[in-house]
Amino acid sequence: MTYENDLIVKIAWQYYIEGLTQNEISKSLNLSRTKVIKYLEKAKTNNVIQFKINLEELDNLTIQNKIKEKYNLKDIYIVPTSHDNTVDSLTIAAAQYIEDRITSDTMISIGYGEAVSKTLGHLQISTKYKITFVSLSGGVKFYMPTAIDTRSDYYTNPNYNHYIVPTPLLVSSKDIADHLLEEKPVKKILEMIPYSNITVIGIGALNDRATLVKEGYLNANDFEILKTKGAVGDLLSQFYDINGHVLDLDFHKKLISTEIDALKSLNHVVAVAGGLDKKDAIIGALKGGYIDVLITDELVAQSLV
């Protein structure tokens, strides 16, 4: 099921089965009323609405509702698992999700890594909107053209403003990190983050494909040690256990990053993550209450229930 079909079924269900008004659906899914009307029309055109809603698609909706209830999520979107490149399917869906929720003068805080960079690369947003992107951490190379598709609107749209924390992600000591976090250019950007309308992050697993390993911050031995301490994944380079509790690590004290506990107070935190190798990392992030919306694949979704 594509992101759009998924959204059409949700809107159709809420309107025709649950009896919600268009305004109530708009508020529930964080969409404009105009988009709700558009998708209801598509539900009729695409034969999602007949005398009953397509039962095969309702099976997917049932799984979503179980996950939402179990982990207290605002929403979840599930894309088909691909043996070729699930990341592409996830990030296309994530970009579409963000596009549907863009209004004039929207501020989006962004994490780093492959999933976030590819999501940004797929964005196609009308030039009538003014969008501000704010980085959640240091590590500017993750936001540079090498990390994203330079053909995308993200890089070429003149109405996009970028505020990137002007530091490395990791420094050599806690003292240096503390000092940099108090520097005016850094502090000014980090103070923008609570005003974000949407936050987009990835979820890291402890394997050799992790961004922290690819960029040379940690290695396989470091991950083995972290596992013995209970680590199952990371958000913004901060490691946590299966229950979402952040580990007490010296590594964390040398990061230039938003603390992951701050995610709980941000508006509309969207996590883009899939693959069974990330299952425990995703569960920990869900149990920790760090995310509002999860965009993942079918195999992971099935494992979560």
What does this structure look like?
The protein has helices spanning 3-17, 22-29, 33-45, 55-71, 86-100, 114-122, 153-156, 174-182, 184-190, 211-214, 220-228, 250-253, 279-287, 298-304, and strands spanning 75-79, 106-110, 131-135, 160-163, 198-202, 204-205, 233-235, 238-240, 269-272, 293-297. Helix content is 43%, strand content 13%. The protein is built from 14 helices and 10 strands.
Per-chain topology:
Layout: H1 3-17, H2 22-29, H3 33-45, H4 55-71, E1 75-79, H5 86-100, E2 106-110, H6 114-122, E3 131-135, H7 153-156, E4 160-163, H8 174-182, H9 184-190, E5 198-202, E6 204-205, H10 211-214, H11 220-228, E7 233-235, E8 238-240, H12 250-253, E9 269-272, H13 279-287, E10 293-297, H14 298-304
Parallel strand pairs: 1-10, 2-3, 2-5, 3-4, 5-9, 9-10
Antiparallel strand pairs: 6-7, 7-8
Termini separation: 18 Å
Q: Give the strand order, joined by hyphens, for the main sheet.
A: 1-10-9-5-2-3-4
Q: Which residue ranges are poorly predicted, with pLDDT under 50 across at least 5 consecutive positions? A: 145-149
The dominant shape is globular
Number of distinct helices: 14
Q: Beta-strand percentage?
A: 5-15%
Radius of gyration: 19 Å
Q: Structural class given helices, strands, pairing? A: alpha/beta
Largest sheet: 7 strands, parallel
Mean pLDDT equals 88
- State the helical fraction: 40-55%
Order of helices and strands: HHHHEHEHEHEHHEEHHEEHEHEH
Strand element count: 10
